[in-house]
Amino acid sequence: MSLNIVKQYSNYKENIPDDIINILNNILSNKNGFKKKTDNDTFSKSKLINILNTISNKNKDSLIEEFKNYIKYWKQEYNDILIKVIYSQNLYTDIYIELFQFLYEEDKNSIIQNLLQYSQDTNTQKTIGCFLGEFMIKYNKFKYIIDIINNFDNDTKNKQSSKIISIYIILCKKGYKHYITNDDFNTFSNMKLSTSSTLLLYDLEDIY
Fold first, then answer.
1. DSSP per residue over 83-127, as a string?
2. Which residues contact 33 (CB under 8 A, 6 or more apart)?
3. pLDDT tens column, 170-194
4. Is the pLDDT of residue 19 over 90?
5. Number of domains forming the structure of the chain
6. Which range (35-44, 67-76, 104-113, 116-125) has the least confidence?
7. Distance between CA 143 and CA 140 in Å, rounded?
8. What does the alpha-carbon distance between residue 159 and residue 26 come to, in Å, rounded to a whole number?
9. Alpha carbons 198 and 82: distance in angstroms, whole number
10. pTM of the predicted model over 0.85
């Protein structure tokens, strides 16, 4: 029902039942009843979260199209959402990496810098390491990321050992172990690592 029709009815209240008059008066007094759908409604955080949490190999074509529609409205808080999904999901790393091609360069760099700085939970580090390793291969970012890692001091490398070793494992498995030097390997061999990182180092030794 259009606003004009509602106004016309409201001008002739004597012919309208009281309950209908109350409904019409509420509509007239509530501008939100006629509010147009905005970009904020269409490109909400909750919808983006839903896309990222439900995307899979079966539905990725349609959801990637929905994701692409977000790009011109992209903002920092969407970076944060994508980062949290990368932290917590390891089943569809390849799809998240595919999504990166649609982001602006500054947003890609912001996300990668955040992932490179993470040094807390070891399982999350492993997930991030797998993502970064695949990202390096997909977008030929070997020098960019390895240079950053090499500039870490030994204390930082130790705290992030699960992540860095996971990166090395991906590179070795995919045929890029020439990007890992003996010094890189020996740095971790000479460290007192956590149990989780030590087990990863054993895995790396087997394929290095």
1. HHHHHH--TTHHHHHHHGGGS-HHHHHHHHHHHHH--S-HHHHHH
2. 26, 27
3. 999 999 999 999 999 899 999 999 9
4. no
5. 2
6. 35-44
7. 8
8. 60
9. 29
10. no
Give kind and range of the element (H or E) at residue 41. helix 39-42
Mean pLDDT of the region 99-113:
95
Residue 154: exposed, middle, or buried by beta-carbon count in 10 A (0-12, 13-18, 19+)?
exposed
Query: Residue 131: which domain range?
Result: 38-207
pLDDT surpasses 70 at 196: yes
Q: Which amino acid is at 16?
A: I
How does 99-132 read in b/e, with b if 16+ C-beta sit within 10 Å?
bbeebeeebbebbbebbbebbeebebbbbbbbbb
Q: Collapsing DSSP states into helix, strand and coil, what is residue 55?
A: coil
Same-domain pairing of 7 and 106: no
CA distance 27 to 34: 8
Quick one: 107 and 61 in the same domain?
yes
pLDDT value of residue 34: 45
Q: Does 15 lie in the same domain as 72?
A: no
Assess whether 104 and 171 both reside in one domain.
yes
Query: Does residue 50 carry a pLDDT above 80?
Result: yes
Q: Please, what is the Cα angle at 166 between 176 and 56, to 5 degrees?
A: 90
